[in-house]
Amino acid sequence: MELRIAGTADDSIVDGPGIRFTIFTQGCPHHCEGCHNPQTHSFDGGEIIEIDELLSKIVSNPLLDGVTFSGGEPFCQAAALAELGRKIKESGLNIITYTGYDFEQLYENREKNGWGELLEVTDFLIDGRFILSQKDWKIRFRGSSNQRYLDCRASLEAGKAVEVEPD
User: Fold this and answer.
1) Which residues touch 85 (CB under 8 Å, ≥6 apart)?
2) Which residues pair with 69 in a beta bridge?
3) Mean pLDDT of the region 34-60
4) E strand residue ranges, 13-137
């Protein structure tokens, strides 16, 4: 299975707790003003890569604490990321997924396009569009104060967003 990506970061410390391998998906419907990754908006850009190639890079780094799916919009390629996520989980790493959608939208439409499967492999979800007027440098791993850091498993079990503080 393939993904269209804008690129990767092999050892990020800004995309979640610990040392993370970050995958920047290509394509985003949100086009948030002030987006940190505007080059990821086009659905035609980036490169096509096999998920097993990404997995090989991930598992070859013994220092990683986890993997972050960023964007672009990861839920535009939810099925492929869910498949990659299942393989990542087998290696013992955690997964953070950033999304411009709200958890409530994703939960309501979890039968759509692999959204439920991606939610199932996600440990922590950072949800909500980036809002430039709410930009806040003091909050960890989020760009604007409207965005939430959610325990995805607890949220799925409760059927509602369960916020937590990042480690």
Assistant:
1) 67, 69, 95, 118, 121, 122
2) 23, 97
3) 95
4) 20-25, 47-50, 66-70, 94-98, 124-127
Q: How confident is the model at residue 1 (pLDDT cuts 50, 70, 90)?
A: very high
Element (H, E) at 59: helix 51-59
Task: Please count the residues of the chain.
Answer: 167
C-alpha to C-alpha distances, 72 to 109, 115, 154, nearest whole angstrom: 19, 15, 25
Mean pLDDT of the chain: 96
Under 8 Å CB-to-CB from 55, ≥6 apart: which residues? 84, 87, 88
Phi, psi angle pair for 86, to nearest 5°: -60, -40
Are the C-beta atoms of residues 70 and 15 closer than 8 Å to each other?
yes
Rounded mean pLDDT, 55-66: 97
**Nearest-10 crossing angle of helices 51-59, 78-90:** 30
- Residues ≥6 apart with Cβ < 8 Å to 143: 36, 130, 135, 136
With a threshold of 0.70, does the pTM exceed it? yes
Which residues have CB under 8 Å from 21's CB, separation 6+?
Answer: 8, 9, 10, 11, 12, 57, 58, 61, 64, 66, 67, 68
Between CA 162 and CA 153 the distance in angstroms is 9
CA distance 40 to 15: 16
